[in-house]
Specification:
- The structure is a single chain.
- The protein is an alpha/beta fold.
- It has four helices and nine strands.
- It has helices spanning 5-11, 93-120, 125-134, 161-173; strands at 3-4, 18-20, 27-28, 30-34, 45-49, 66-70, 84-87, 141-143, 149-152.
- The strands form three sheets. It has a five-stranded mixed beta sheet, with helices on one face. It has a two-stranded antiparallel sheet with strand order 1-3. Strands 8-9 form a two-stranded antiparallel ribbon.
- A hairpin with a 5-residue loop joins strand 8 (141-143) and strand 9.
- Helix 2 (93-120) packs antiparallel against helix 3.
- It is elongated, with a radius of gyration of 22 Å.
- The two termini are 43 Å apart.
Length: 174
């Protein structure tokens, strides 16, 4: 499972994350710290680095790769198109890396659980058990063609005001 750049951007908003020059559909299977220049980068890896490393990279490495870095906007004077996420200059990159590792780990665990559930061949139940854990504040419902609820992640919606209000409005109209 690949994580989109947009999801990663949302995860890093508390660090002042801003999207920089992204003209591609970037998605990632992992994260890596880039501490020194290299000749080879993987296209589905998100690289976290300091602004000192970026100018030392070969120009062609910027074409299909994405970076998370902290810098002052005035430090972004590269001669190449830079794709990535700019963080506040006071951001602790170790904290950011830990947050990203946690994000990728959770999604890989979710993907593994879904694959295991599909092997169980017990209908919807294993998938809804996973959904209950992964999305505890959400209501997910499966209905048949007559709109009878076949399976749901919740037995009650009393604690979800918006859903409760919608259901009351539907009842009033019928």
């Amino acid at each position: 499972m690949k994580l989109s750049l947009q999801l990663i951007l949302e995860t890093l908003t508390e660090y002042g994350a801003q999207l920089i020059e992204t003209d591609g559909d970037f998605a990632f299977t992992g994260v890596q710290i880039l501490t020194s220049p290299t000749d080879i980068l993987e296209p589905d890896t998100l690289y976290v680095c300091t602004p000192k490393v970026l100018p030392k990279l070969k120009k062609q490495l910027f074409e299909n790769h994405c970076f998370v870095f902290k810098a002052k906007p005035s430090q972004l004077q590269c001669h190449h198109a830079l794709h990535g996420i700019l963080l506040d200059e006071n951001t602790d990159l170790n904290e950011v890396v830990n947050r990203l590792i946690t994000l990728f780990t959770q999604f890989h665990a979710f993907e593994f659980a879904i694959k295991e559930a599909s092997l169980e061949r017990r209908g919807y139940e294993p998938f809804f058990e996973i959904a209950k854990k992964a999305f505890p504040h959400c209501l997910i419902v499966v209905t048949d063609s007559a709109y009878n609820i076949v399976c749901s992640t919740r037995s009650s919606v009393d604690d979800i005001e918006k859903v409760k209000d919608k259901l009351q409005n539907i009842k009033k109209n019928f």
